[in-house]
Amino acid sequence: MVLDSNWTGEYTRPGPRLYPHQWSWDSAFIAFGYARYDQKRAIQELRHLFDNQWTNGLLPQIVFDPHFGEYFPGIDFWHAECSESAVCVYKTSGVVQPPIHATATLHVYRHGVDRPGARAFLEEAFPRLVAWHDYLYRERDPENEGLVYIRHPWESGMDNSPLWDAIMLRMQLRSHEIPAYRRVDTHVVSPADRPESAAYDRFAYLVQLFSRLNYDEARIREDCPFLVQDVLFNSLLCQGERDLAQIAQLIGEDPSPNEERAGKTAGAVNRKLWDEEHGTYLDFDLATGQPIRVYAAAGFLPLFAGIPEEQCARRMVERLKTTGFDLGGEGMIAVPSYDPLGFGFSPSRYWRGPVWINIDWLLMRGLERYGYEKHARGLRESIVNLVRDNGFYEYFNPRTGVGHGSDLFSWSAALLLDAMSDSWW
Ligand code: GLC
């Protein structure tokens, strides 16, 4: 079984060779799967991540296992110890990933067989989750809009998406600004599936900028060329706040601050990120003050958080059916991460078009939430068939189903387990 083979005793590796450390949102997705059959492990998984939270609340994208030295960018490249908030947990990266952890924590409780144990975990996790969301609203929402920004493509979880192309193009680097580094990923899987080196130069440049500024968010905000209010990140934060309110209620805390923040974020997503012309949501580039007019599947994921009004949701479903995403049609095996008719689409390159199970799973739960039963069922079948016929890959060609990237990929297994079980809402 994939999850068992990737379990280290402390956390679950996303994939056996390509991803040997702990990744933040992977662990949350993995916990959704464990919740269905091994509550103890689901709790251990999340606890190991929370144990490496920075004192300012930042929940790191990667917790490194120092035994795997062959990784780029590793502990020494991040210099997390430059931040006064990371002194005790220096073995982490210095960026974050989308905040789906409160949702995962509540899910572990709801499906836990050992109720007292699961409740005790809610009490333990609550202050961690509050600190995590507080960090985001405090440090990443300087104008108090209810929308937080990300400052590196890796923070979106969709590292190499065409969403970031315009910003990457604007980053004209001179040779001395590109840090010396050696990639490992392209030795493990085909370089044709992975980001190009010009993208990696920019990823590395941003990391070096953060460590040079000692991870001081106010200074980063002034200098960083990448500052984006991302639809998926803010949607998951909104749902996370809704779930944190539920957790608060279950353990006898006041849910109203979290309910208020969820409402504020939902309102801001609708006001600022909705694209009336195309019936979807768009990321917003804070450096240019303009929306990013790139049509990715993530633009439909406010459905997962119950953000759009019914009428907007209807337009979104229409859009999914009539564009290259081909929801419910015969052309695509499942919903691709980027519109196949979009400029720069690739069926096999990392985040530039392949099907990712986590994106389709979020969309499936979103469609279900709004009562689009037939489409939700169709997507569920696509997810199950895709993995059954092609294996537990990291991502899949949307036309042929051929798997790419890491094999034995943990969240493909974990979310399959959840997708096969009952409706959520
Ligand atoms: C890649 C993905 C990211 C994921 C990580 C580990 O970097 O883009 O979303 O968390 O791999 O699986």
Automatic annotation (TrEMBL):
This is Glycoside hydrolase. It comes from Rubrobacter tropicus. One of its GO terms (biological process) is protein N-linked glycosylation. Belongs to the glycosyl hydrolase 63 family. Signal peptide: none annotated. Keywords: Glycosidase, Hydrolase. Residues 19-412 form the Mannosylglycerate hydrolase MGH1-like glycoside hydrolase domain. One of its GO terms (molecular function) is Glc3Man9GlcNAc2 oligosaccharide glucosidase activity. InterPro entries: 6-hairpin_glycosidase_sf, 6hp_glycosidase-like_sf, Glycoside_hydrolase_63, MGH1-like_GH. Gene3D superfamilies: 1.50.10.10.
